[in-house]
Amino acid sequence: MLKTAYQQSPKQELAKNTPFFNETDLKHSFIIDFENQEFIHHQAEPLNYLFYLIKGKAKILKTERNGRQSIVQFLTTGDLIGDLTLVQAETITKDVIALGETCCLAVPLAYAETVLKNKVLFMQQLSHYLGKKMLQRVDHFTTNQTYELSYRLAELLLVAANHEDVYKEKHTEIAEYLGVSYRHLIYTFKQFRERGFIQKQGTAYHINRLALHSFVQKMKS
């Protein structure tokens, strides 16, 4: 992890023109770089920042009491981390892990609570974002019920692969996330390899982004 004050960071341009923060807000913030598979936040630990993903991807994991982990959501550029904590809808935080090299704008939570929550425009933007997030989760569950696995897996690979188009997730967690059996998932991966959508690389896969995107668009039409 590399943390730099916003005004001293060479990556200032990445954080400008966000829908949530103005220049004054940015001056109170930091830019933090995370390596692949590095924790952005640990479950149940106090949240010190409201994060805004300005480059890269991440995933949210929930760990149950028995130690079992479940994927809650995949995050991409433009997503927030800590928004539910800010509005006091979530009291126990979850694990957030970077997928590939990831860069976040980090606004101190104390500043967000005392300043940002008193700004009408910020709260309007946050409400809009939370509404879209809720609809995305509803879409995820309805898609699991109405679309075949090949379409859902292709979409997931496009989202979950890092900036180098490398995908490395546990089959057990993905099977649960997609609502299918482990055997069905493995069979579909085999089909994707045969069709040239993915290529095995050790314990990971390199995805053919163009072919997967074309396949998804064809399935939608």
Automatic annotation (TrEMBL):
Pfam families membership: cNMP_binding, HTH_Crp_2
GO (cellular component) term, any one: cytosol
UniProt keyword terms in alphabetical order: DNA-binding, Transcription, Transcription regulation
Domain annotation Cyclic nucleotide-binding: ranges: 34-107
Residue intervals of the HTH crp-type domain: 147-211
Domain of life (superkingdom): Bacteria
InterPro entries named among the record's database cross-references: cNMP-bd_dom, cNMP-bd_dom_sf, Env_Response_Regulators, HTH_CRP, RmlC-like_jellyroll, WH_DNA-bd_sf
GO molecular function (one): DNA-binding transcription factor activity
PANTHER family: CRP FAMILY TRANSCRIPTIONAL REGULATORY PROTEIN, REGULATORY PROTEIN YEIL
Protein name: Transcriptional regulator YeiL
High-level lineage: Bacteria, Bacillati, Bacillota, Bacilli, Lactobacillales
